[in-house]
Design brief:
Layout (H helix, E strand, L loop, with lengths): L2 E7 L5 H15 L6 E7 L11 H8 L16 H4 L2 E4 L2 H14 L6 E4 L20 H23 L3
Parallel strand pairs: 1-2, 1-3, 3-4
Helix pairs in contact: 1-5, 2-5
Bound molecules: 4-nitrophenyl phosphate.
EC number: 3.1.3.48
GO molecular function, one term: protein tyrosine phosphatase activity
Protein name: protein-tyrosine-phosphatase
């Protein structure tokens, strides 16, 4: 069985492309890529077409993780084509839930907070690093590595 996963944040240039890259990196190291389709999107459209933020890319690269994605905005169709949509914070969660309401019964994706899969933190949201310093980008990666591990364990029993 294939899993279709969409990671969602606000701008799709920091947290969700990092989640996508971290998860793909873990999939590759476990030779699990063939069982997954992975993508990311933003609830906002300001950065559409841009690569991930250079601070996010360089923090990830120092951990051996590449972030090749280009920003796009989530669409109503995404609620029908992905199995699981993982949101970074409460605003993203509310926005995606309201898109699902708009789509109605055809919206089949499960929508869950990314950090519901983390085991090493009590945080419920991945903090937005955009206006902060370098430590914020490291924190994002720490949280996402933890949550991606939990996510992969949860889903790999269903491949
Ligand atoms: P992201 O971070 O949601 O993790 O991609 C942000 C990127 C850009 C902006 C806000 C958050 N912005 O306001 O432009």
């Amino acid at each position: 069985m294939n899993h279709r996963l969409l990671f969602v944040c606000l701008g799709n240039i920091c947290r969700s492309p990092a989640a996508e890259g971290v998860f793909l990196h873990q999939l590759k190291s476990q030779d699990m890529e063939k069982h997954f389709v992975v993508d990311s999107a933003g609830t906002g459209g300001w950065h559409v077409g841009r690569p991930a933020d250079s601070r996010m890319r360089s923090a990830a690269q120092q951990r051996g993780i590449l972030l090749p994605s280009r920003a796009r905005q989530i669409t109503l169709e995404d609620l029908q084509t992905f199995d699981l949509i993982l949101t970074m914070d409460a605003d993203n969660l509310a926005t995606v839930q309201s898109l699902a309401t708009e789509v109605g019964p055809m919206a089949t994706a499960r929508i869950e907070p990314m950090l519901s899969y983390a085991t090493k933190t009590s945080l419920e949201e991945v903090p937005d690093p955009y206006y902060g310093g370098d430590a914020g980008f490291e924190k994002v990666l720490d949280l996402l590595e933890d949550a991606c591990e939990g996510l992969l364990i949860a889903l790999s029993s269903q491949v």
